[in-house]
Amino acid sequence: MTAHYQFVILGAGAAGLQAAYCFSKAGADYCVLEKSDSVGTFYKKYPRRRQLISFNRTNTIFDCPKINLRFDWNSLLTDDYSFPFSSITDSLYPSADDLVLYLESFAKRYDLAIQYNHNVLKVSRDPGDSLFQLTIDGRDNITASTLIVASGFGKPFIPDIPGIQLAEGYEDVDLDPASFKNKKVLIIGKGNSAFEIADLALEQSSLVHMASPKAVKLAWQSRHPGHVRANHVRLLDSYQLKLLNGTLDCNVLSISKHNDSLKAVVSYVHADGEQEELLYDRIIRCAGFMFDPCIFDPSLRPHTVLGGKLPATTPFWESVNVSDLFFAGTLTQARDFKKSSSAFIGGYRYNTRTLCKFLLSGKDPDGCQVPASSLDVTSFAALILDRCNKNSALWAQFGYLCDLFIKRGDRYDHYQELPYQAIGEGLFSSEENVLSLTFEWGEWSGDVMEVQRHPTATKAYTNVFLHPIVRRYRYGSILAEHHILEDLFGVYSAEGEQGNVLSRGGLPIDEYHEVQHVRPLIDFLGRNASGSLYHDYLLSLSGETPLELSRADSSDGSWDG
Ligand SMILES: Cc1cc2nc3c(=O)[nH]c(=O)nc-3n(C[C@H](O)[C@H](O)[C@H](O)COP(=O)(O)OP(=O)(O)OC[C@H]3O[C@@H](n4cnc5c(N)ncnc54)[C@H](O)[C@@H]3O)c2cc1C
C-alpha cells in the first residue's frame, strides 16, 4: 500500500529534525524518511577527529535565550528555548558525540515522526502527476506533494587529478598518530578537514605539505565560519616559523607511484609557472564533499551549481527546475557560499524554519500585521532596534536573511527572516513602501586587526564590524539606506544594554544610544513623527542617486546614515 504525506523530509540530520519540529508544531501532515536506524549519523563519523567547529558559548553577558542563540551554534530552534544544546555540554568546542546525543534526545523529546531504515532509492514523478513517488529499499512506496531533501552531502568531492585513486580519503584515513611517524605527507585541500588532518600529522611526521590552487582563508579574517578555524592552524605556525612544513598554492597535475613513494607533480600558482616533482610517503585527499543526485530519476534531476557540488535553488530553496522539490540543511549553502552560515546548523536552522513557514502558508510569505496608527516613527524605530538587539537569525545569516516592513494602507506587514535575495529577484517589487532590515559586514582591506573605526552615527556607513542596515525600497529599487552604528555587543538601545559598560563616547549609556542609534534611525524613518511616515521622507529624496544622498556624511543632521 502506498502511503501519502503532504510533506516528506528526506534525511534525519539536524536539518531534517528542524523541519520535522516545525511541521510537527504546526500539526502538518509530514514524515521523515531516514535510511539508517538513528538520527544525526553524519556526526557519528564526522568530523573525523570529533571536535566540532560550531561554537557552544554557554556563559554570556545576556540572560535572554533569544540573544544567546547568537553564541550557541548547535541548538535546534524551538518555540520556548527549553532544550538548548548546553543541556548536553558546556564545552566551547564540543565533541561531535555530544551533538549525536543532542539530536537523538531532540527527536525523542518532540516525538518527531521519523521512519528509520527507510532508504530512498529513487525519486520520480509520473508525467502529468504532481506527486513525488519515493521508492524505498524493501518497503512500500511513499508519495509526497512536497519533498524536502535534507540528505546532506552524498559523496566526497574528488578532484580530477590523474592518479588521485592513490591518495587516501578524509573519509577513511588512518588517524593513528603512529601511522604518520617519520612520514612525508601531502594533504590535498586547505579547508577545515584538511587542517584537521594536518594538525594530527604535524606531531610525528617528518614533513607536511598542504596543496590546492587557492591560498588559505582564515575564518577570523574573512568572518565566514566555514573558512579555516583558529583551533586547527598550528601547521601555519610551523610553516612560517620554518619547521619544514608548508602550504603550497599549486595545482596538483598528477600522482603516481615512484618506488616506495608517491610522486606528485605540482604547478605553482604564484611562482612564475614553476613546476616541481615532489616525493611523499602518504597523500591524503581532503577536498570536501558534494551533493549526490543519483536517487533522482533523470527526468527529475535537479540542476546544480558550483561544478555540480550543490543544488541550484530559488531564494526560497526550491529547485530551479523541479517544482515542489525543496532543499534544507547543508545543501542550501550555494546562495551564501563562503559568506554566512547556511552550511552549518547555526545558519540552516533559520533557513529551515523560514522554509517551513513558507510551505505551511502555501508558498506565500506570511507577515504579521501591525496597525500603522500604532507605529509613529519613534515606536517604529524602537521596534527595529528591538529586532536588532534580540534577533539571532539576522545576526547569524548576515546579508542573507532579512526582516521586511511593508506599508499597505493603514497597516504595516512585518515579515520576519525572509531570504533577502528574494527582494532582488522580484519579491514585493510591486510594493511602493518597503523597508528591509539586515545585518552586514562592511568592506575592508589590509589587516583585519587594524581596521580604522569611525565610532559615530554619521560615519556608520563606513563600519566594518557586523551592524544593522535599514534600506528603503520602492517598486523593487533601493531608494536609500541607513547604517546603524556598529556595536561589539550587538546592542543598539539602552533597554537591551547589559554587562558592565556604563558609558561610551563619554556619555551615559542611555544617552549614548539615544544620540548614536535611536535618533539617527528616527531621522531616517522620517523627521516628522506624524502619521505620514514615508511621505515625508520620499519628499526629501531628490535627484537620481538617493543612495549617495543617504550615505553622505551630512553635518546638518538630515540623511545622516
Ligand atoms: C568534516 C565536516 C565537519 C563539519 N562540522 C560541522 C560542525 O562542527 N558544525 C556544523 O554545524 N556543521 C558542520 N559541518 C557541516 C555539516 O555538513 C552539517 O552541519 C550537517 O551534518 C548537515 O546536516 P544535514 O541535516 O543537512 O545533513 P546530514 O547531517 O548529513 O543528514 C542527512 C541524513 O540524510 C540521510 N540520508 C541520506 N540519503 C538518504 C536516502 N537516500 N534515504 C534516506 N535517508 C537518507 C542520512 O543518513 C543522514 O542521516 C561539517 C561538515 C563537514 C564535511
| Name given to the CATH homologous superfamily of the largest domain | FAD/NAD(P)-binding domain
Find the CATH topology of the largest domain: FAD/NAD(P)-binding domain
From the N-terminal CA to the C-terminal CA, the straight-line distance is 62 Å
Segments where pLDDT lies below 50 for 5+ residues? Answer: 527-561
Task: Set down the secondary structure blueprint.
Blueprint lengths: L2 E8 L3 H12 L4 E4 L8 H4 L19 H4 L27 H14 L4 E2 L4 E5 L7 E5 L5 E8 L5 E2 L11 E2 L14 E5 L3 H13 L2 E6 L6 H4 L11 H7 L5 E13 L2 E8 L6 E6 L1 E4 L3 E2 L13 E2 L4 E2 L13 E3 L17 H16 L7 E4 L5 H14 L2 H4 L4 E8 L2 E9 L1 H4 L9 E7 L26 E8 L2 E7 L19 E2 L2 E2 H17 L7 H7 L6 H6 L10
Parallel strand pairs: 1-2, 1-6, 2-3, 6-18, 8-14, 9-10, 9-14, 10-11
Antiparallel strand pairs: 4-5, 5-6, 7-15, 11-12, 12-13, 16-17, 19-21, 20-21, 20-22, 22-23, 23-24, 25-26
Descriptive overview:
The chain has about 550 residues and is α/β, with parallel strands linked by helices. It has three domains: about 5-155 and about 290-360, FAD/NAD(P)-binding domain (3-Layer(bba) Sandwich); about 165-285, FAD/NAD(P)-binding domain, CATH 3.50.50; about 370-550, no CATH class. The chain is built from 14 helices and 26 strands. Strands 1, 2, 3, 4, 5, 6 and 18 form a seven-stranded mixed beta sheet that branches. Strands 8-14-9-10-11-12-13 form a seven-stranded mixed beta sheet. The longest helix has 17 residues, at about 510-525. Residues about 525-560 have low confidence and may be disordered. Bound molecules: flavin-adenine dinucleotide. The site of flavin-adenine dinucleotide (FAD) has 33 residues, from helix 1 and helix 8.
